Amino acid sequence: MPAPKPPEFFIKTGLHVEPIPSHEELWATGLVAYLWNIYANHLTEYGNVLTRTNAAARRRFTKTVGLKPRTKMVRALIRRYFKPQYRKQWTDIINRGGSLQIQRDKIVHGDWGTKWDSEARVMTGPRFLFAHFQQKGAYEWKLDYETIFSIAKQIDKLVLDCSMFSLELIRPEDGADLRPSLLRRLIEPDRALTRRDRLASYLPDQIRRLVRPRS
Length: 215
Description:
Radius of gyration: 23 Å
Strand order of the largest sheet: 1-2-3
Strand content: 5-15%
Shape: elongated
Distance between the termini: 83 Å
Low-confidence stretches: 192-215
Structural class: mainly alpha
Number of domains: 1
Largest sheet: 3 strands, antiparallel
Oligomer: single chain
């Protein structure tokens, strides 16, 4: 019996797994991942700026893995230390980022598939993104290039707004290290990190809730 002929996709590419998404859908998915990484770096940089004068808070922020918990920390820092004219602007950016992260995570981490025709016993129909085997949050989402690209455009606008926010605060005299200037212009003078803040950053969350916040 002759050996089975290798699939045409393997002959062309040397890959064993043929992608279900089209080339355009794969490109748009890569664009979503690429732009999201830029946004995550913006958020991380502001976390670094806001914890610059607090070594304990900086260590806690650096050791925090995952964008969601880091976003929560940055949101709290912004609420506490930003000047009012900047507080709402960056809070709005973070809120939009939180909404887009749900869609980004599904696109990047979900599985592609098609519908199973039980009568014909074949996979048919449009492509779907799904995660049916999760303990919670199972979903099925019909996706195409236009939908993925529209989400990429929203993330692109998010990145642009982050960049413009920073550019509005930069001055020619700032030099190469922009963090001190950003810190000085963003934070209210009477909201400098105090010894009480530094002590609280060491406390576990259960104890920290008992510490009365500064008025």
